[in-house]
Amino acid sequence: MIILLTNDDGIHSKKLKYARKVLEKFGKVYTVAPAEEQSAKSMSLSIGGFKVNEINEQEYSVEGTPVDCVNFALGGLNLRPDLVVSGINDGYNLGFDTRYSGTVGACLQAQYFGFNSIAFSSDRKGFAMVELEFEKTLKYILDNKLYSPKYTLNVNFPREKFEESNGLLDDVKIFHHEYEYKPELIDGHYYPNRRIVVSGDLPKNTDAYGFHNGYTTISKITIW
Description:
This protein is α/β, with parallel strands linked by helices. The protein has helices spanning 14-23, 66-76, 97-100, 102-112, 128-143, 207-213; strands at residues 2-6, 28-34, 52-56, 59-62, 83-90, 117-122, 152-156, 168-172, 178-181, 195-198, 216-221.
């Protein structure tokens, strides 16, 4: 199996390096990741080109966005991966945030070109759940052939406050929280972009329910 690994946290991310270590058990891994953090870039790309730095034959950093990384892997390296993995993200990609996410954006670009893709995300407050959940969740996905070029699998691991996972919720729906934005200019010109979640009931078969109740969740995202 040929695996393309990317992210939006950058080439130096510890969770990216951990993902590569595990993925190497399943196939030949090529890492193409941004040189610097590119969080919340969605599917943005660099007009006019970007610089690429070769680390070795299977690792590259790109001075651009996650989408640029996928484009370079497919066009510059002529890779035809069996699977594109983005992450493991340092922070969650739930609800409407999946549309802002550079982690998911890389997968949607791969989906656009007809490749299988999985986005993995985790609590930015720690590493324990990644170590507990990543390999077994990946194996579950591969063994059951849950992946498809028709959609991206979006995986979120439990929060670090849980001592262990309460299990796996497969094929959950993405729940769109309602937000309120409170205008609050600081010093007359700086806007901190704070938002407040409007509370409400969480349907059980949703990514939000899994997040609040200690589950690993798998949802599907389509580009169209």
